[in-house]
Amino acid sequence: MIMEYKVAEVLIPENEIAKRVREIGEKIGKDYAGKDLVVVGILKGAVVFMSDLVRAIPETVNVSLDFMAVSSYGDSTKTSGIVRIVKDLDSSVKDKNVLIVEDIVDTGLTLSYLVKLMHERQPGTIRVCALLDKEERRKVSVHVEYKGFSIPDKFVVGYGLDYAGRWRNLPSVHIVEVLEQ
Length: 181
Ligand code: 5GP
Fold this sequence. Notes:
By secondary structure, the chain is an alpha/beta fold. The chain is built from 3 helices and 9 strands. It has one domain: Rossmann fold, CATH 3.40.50. Helices cover 22% and strands 35% of the residues. Guanosine-5'-monophosphate binds at residues 45, 72-73, 79, 102-111, 155-157, 161-163.
């Protein structure tokens, strides 16, 4: 049997994402007004969200950017539970306010590992921001302070999220449909 995949219905359209990103940016602006904030994007999925998000944070917050890359699903839609640091931060976050930005929280394994790892670097504060949350799939609890949307247990792509490296460039979030031939 040959499995083919295609992007199907739009789950969250571009304009709804933009509205929610503005709201989260304003909230972050209030919470960190007059403070420094290191926004740590988790490559590659969070890049599109992060680039919109940081521009929605007002200039009253002194924002700097850093990135981490962790190994994730490869070409499969199943979680492996294995998290490996592929790229680490460029600068020390000791005593700094850190905001980890993720594309999606699924089982929570990736984020809980990253939060634990970040704690070891002794930042002043750590918070998490995720665009999407598949709450019903959670295996370990993680506190997400800034959340975009809760979504059902479907594999999604677009707005930075990929399937086998594809579809990150779609402006909306779509559900992936499996076609069996
Ligand atoms: P977790 O460790 O929470 O199970 O998985 C988090 C990571 O799995 C995300 O950063 C993302 O890379 C990947 N992931 C989970 N669900 C989806 C999904 O529906 N679509 C895509 N493209 N990636 C997902």
